[in-house]
Specification:
By secondary structure, this protein is mainly alpha-helical. Helix content is about 85%, strand content about 0%. The protein contains eleven helices and no strands. Helix 2 (about 15-35) packs antiparallel against helix 3 (about 40-80) and helix 6 packs parallel to helix 9 (about 190-205). The longest helix has about 40 residues, at about 40-80. The radius of gyration is 21 Å and the shape is globular.
């Protein structure tokens, strides 16, 4: 652990930040309860336990992110970017993208909900495969941008034009699923690992972090719009 993170945790900085983030939610609920008296003591106790679970869960998750995922992703990106095999950033990024989407908790929830809402017409396996393909393509494109200095708008604009065009050609249900999936795919695992990975590669290759590295999240949010509208209707 770096000296910064060691001092940060020793001073209780992480717990303080999470408490600060939860305070408005708890305060708003307290005001609501004082005004309406909507919850009985048993319900209040359950909500209090839920807040404690949230606090503990966020502390554990963010500790793993700050101590594990962020440094590991950045060092891996720097090592690959500074090596003689920097060309491998794009295929390896695609491989990482394919598997990391499986670690997103919200993705599993979405796939199960889509299968339930569609009565099995869109299976969770088909949804998961479409999201994996979209994530792999997005990370490969993000690494290609860093390697060759491609402007973000040169990828984003054609991608969204294609996504919007597909929305007129596929049933509305698939368009709704696709646009929901874009936000789900760009979840905490993407920000915790893929973004530091792109930043490390960008630093090693001498690119601009602000112009090149942060495009990975935008691409991750875009590509599921295309892959789901292309793949799911064909399999249904």
């Amino acid at each position: 652990m770096s000296a910064f993170y060691s001092e940060y945790y020793n001073n209780g900085g992480l717990c303080y930040d999470i408490l600060l983030a939860l305070a408005p939610i708890a305060g708003l609920f307290l005001v609501f309860q004082l005004l309406t008296r909507a919850f009985k003591p048993k319900g209040l106790a359950r909500i209090g336990v839920g807040l404690i679970y949230t606090l503990v869960g966020l502390v554990l998750f963010l500790t793993g992110v700050n101590v594990g995922f962020l440094p590991a992703g950045r060092q891996l990106g720097q090592a690959l970017g500074s090596s003689a095999y920097s060309w491998s950033l794009s295929p390896l990024g695609a491989l990482l993208g394919w598997f990391i989407v499986e670690a997103e908790p919200a993705v599993h929830v979405l796939c199960v909900q889509v299968e339930s809402v569609t009565g099995g017409a869109v299976s969770k396996n088909a949804m998961g495969r479409a999201l994996s393909i979209g994530m792999a393509v997005s990370v490969a494109l993000a690494m290609a941008r860093i390697l060759f200095g491609i402007p973000l708008y040169a990828v984003i604009l054609p991608g969204y034009v294609l996504a919007m065009g597909l929305s007129f050609a596929v049933p509305p249900m698939f368009t709704g699923i696709a646009f929901d999936s874009g936000g789900v795919a760009s979840g905490p695992m993407t920000a915790a690992f893929l973004l530091p990975f792109a930043m490390g590669a960008c630093e090693a290759l001498g690119g601009s972090i602000l112009l090149d590295a942060f495009g990975v999240v935008a691409l991750v949010a875009m590509t599921p719009l295309i892959t789901i509208q292309l793949i799911i209707p064909l399999r249904s």
